[in-house]
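Form 7-S
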Amino acid sequence: MKLILERNQLLKSLSHVHRIVERRNTYPILANVLIRAFDNKVELRATDLDIEVSEQTAASISKEGTTTVPAHTFYEIIRKLFDGAEVELEVENEQMSIRSARSNFHLSCLNAEGFPSLKAEEDFVNKFTINAQDLSELIERTQFAISTEETRYYLNGIYMHTIENEGKEFIRAVATDGHRLARAQISAPSGSSNIEGIIIPRKTVSELQKLLDGLEEEINIEISDSKVRFTIGSLILLSKLIEGTFPDYERVTPKDNDKKLVVNRSDFASAVDRVSTIASDKGGKAVKLIINRDQLELVVINPDHGTANEILPVEFSEDKFEIGFNARYLLDIVGQIRSDNIIFMFNDSGSPTLAREENNDEALYVLMPMRV
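Output:
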């Protein structure tokens, strides 16, 4: 194999592909990136057996071929080469030579025949196109609530499905870790009406969000019984889906919370952040909200360090009400609110609380209270 290509193009593709390669691998081949030179282009591909990312870029091919080299080492070499330089790659006797300007490197290769592939003859029954920013919005509004508890593996991703509401169809994304729940939706694009429910794994969600950053183009999505495939230009991300049943989130979403609190989002976030400075990690970073007729008092009591409180003006017309939350969970939700004010809907001090933006029901958040 022998080829020449521009360093910046190679680095861009390699940065997309190498990230999914784990630093520690049981099988040496999984630490490598596959490089295939053909038809005046080069394909880079990496996998961790659950996700596969591949991308093609233009190259001048003198000799076609395929090999694999250590992904992270190869990436670091290309990253440190001169901006805009030409890079020559040549493979002979299971050794890759990397030449650029005055720099020369040699990497050991592993035969590409042992490189695994997630590709299979599957029926991708759902195929549709979605704007990159719309997909990114769904992920951003829900990603923070994905569970990291491996025992409840079915919560380790974003649940995505199509719903109908008042005659309109939406794609809805939901994530929960049992302490908080995030739900967001967008108008369903053509072809997406039959998505009964898939769980996209946490790592796939994270990689996808990085790839979508700053993009405004259309993304092709294909779904089979066990996999999902995202095509972004010449880049393809193929991922296994989580096999399991996502809980009935509608059942745990409050329907009759009638105590309404309206508070300035920025002021509230700053106040929670300030008073939680002395909160105890052992106590779950607990903060108490005491609400009484257009006044909200935030209180933190730490027996080892002292107390903190702060008072904010709010809109609240009910009788005095008290409830406690984990400050970090509370700030995570407030951080997703885009309107000037945030609306909380309470029932009682032991029931889940709803949070949403003003004049927008497309995103909804549920937060479990805690004893304070």
